[in-house]
Amino acid sequence: MSWILLFSFYNDVTMKVAFSLLLIFLVIQSQAQHQHDMARMPDSSMKKMTVKKPTTKKTPTKKNIKMNMGGNKRQVMNDTTKPDMKMNMSKNMPMDEMNDTMKHGMNMERMNMSHSFSRNLPMSRDGSGTSWMPDASPRYAYMIMKEKTMIMLHGNIFLRYTNQDIFNKGSRGGSGFSAPNWFMSMLQKPVGKKGLVMTRVMISLDPLTVGGHGYPLLFQSGETYKGAPLIDHQHPHDLFSELGIGYTQELNKNSDVFGYIGYPGEPALGPPAFMHRISAMNNPDAPLGHHWQDATHITFGVASLGFRYKNLKIEGSAFKGREPNENRYNLDKITINSYSYRISVNPSAHWALQFSQGFIKSPELSEPGVDVVRTTASVLFSKKISDNNQYDAAFVWGYNDKSDGHKEHSVLLENNHRIKKNTLYSRYEFIQKSAEELNLESLFNDSEFNIHVITAGYNHMIFAAQYFDFLGGLQGSINFPPRPLQNLYGKTPLAVEVYLQLKPKLHLHQ
């Protein structure tokens, strides 16, 4: 059904751009598959193509190959071309991937697969900004190794149709096609014996594939379009969502100090942004509590400092409080006027906990005189049950204390359970929103409403390519408006979505 809907709408400029993106990725994939097949040609075929047989020094033995597969320890391996080549590998790296690494990586002096803000933590702990994920989190990305430099590419594309009130129970639901997406590249390189530098670029083509008015989403609010607050729509993300650089200095194996600047970037506030949480990766919609929990993930001007001791991290940020303006293609003016702090603890490989608080100056353009004290706490869980069975979950609480007197809570519970090619996922949200937040002051004065939404979805891998997976999904949401809003929204409006998804393959899994 999703193919028919998408094909019928292909003449729309939004879908033209989306299908162009898909075509580009498939062409890249085809070329990568060809190179991969060439690299795996039998030796007999390779001999016919070889002009001169290379000489080898000596066959490696058990004595000169040392591989320590422990979590964060560095590994040393001697090869037949360059002795004492150093490699960092995940202890659960698939054997065929390890063989490819050994076969094609002989010209590399070192492969560094560490965390982007610590040489002694696993890459799987990387979240958005400087946040932490559980060490057991899977990594959907494509890695490029060259000498001491590592480049990681990842992202997510949805081609979807959504109807937010399929039975027309109310008057606030919308429908339409859109293609939410984001793409990220990260480069990291060791500096000296204890330094580590990281650069990160994240972009989103939402301004083209979603549009300035965003996509329909009942009860969502935040930011503006054509000077008016966006209500029952999720705003598009900026073309430049992150341009950041960080440096970490190792004090010893258990301790690091680090700094990070971004324009735009993400301050030390909230859990990993929803686009980067594994528990949310198959849901095309932003959480309704986005502006209570992690909306500062795009901030035009941020500087952070932090300290890690073992699995405890304390960090603070100074940043611009105002959220991005309606011009999604530019870089907004820097005005550092807000600050935050965050405490993170990973008690084991399966858990990541954080508590944070931000003092935000006038975040909303539509409320220029209203400041917000935002407090958040989150618990993330990740568990590899077997090679083809992975479970990820998140609990997030966010609280906005506004200077205009409004004090509003939000709670989110989400999970993602992958079994082979099939994934079941869900999200429950409770959020408090004022009449002003929903642009209903003329009807309800200064009232506050408790809103509940339950979402459940199913995702299936249609085919797996060398570097990307192509999936299809279906999800539904049941909204529970409070009684005063049922004349506008209906008693229990039902939202339905069908989508196609393109994302990188699972690359690294600890």
Description:
This protein has a single domain, classed as Porin (Beta Barrel). The protein is 13% helix and 46% strand. The strands form five sheets. It has a 16-stranded antiparallel β-barrel with strand order 8-10-11-14-15-16-17-18-19-20-21-22-23-24-25-26. A three-stranded mixed sheet has the order 1-2-3, with no helix packed on it. The chain has a two-stranded antiparallel ribbon with strand order 4-5. The protein is mostly beta strands and 510 residues long. The model is unreliable at 1-112 (pLDDT under 50). Strand 24 (448-464) and strand 25 form a beta hairpin.
Features:
510 residues, mainly beta, Porin, 16-stranded antiparallel β-barrel, 3-stranded mixed beta sheet, 13% helix, 46% strand, disordered N terminus
What's the CATH topology name?
Porin
What percent of residues are in strands? over 45%
| Structural class computed from helices and strand pairing | mainly beta
The total strand number stands at 27
N-to-C span: 36 Å
> Number of folding domains?
1
pLDDT average, as an integer? 84
Overall geometry = globular
Low-pLDDT regions: 1-112
Q: Label the CATH architecture.
A: Beta Barrel
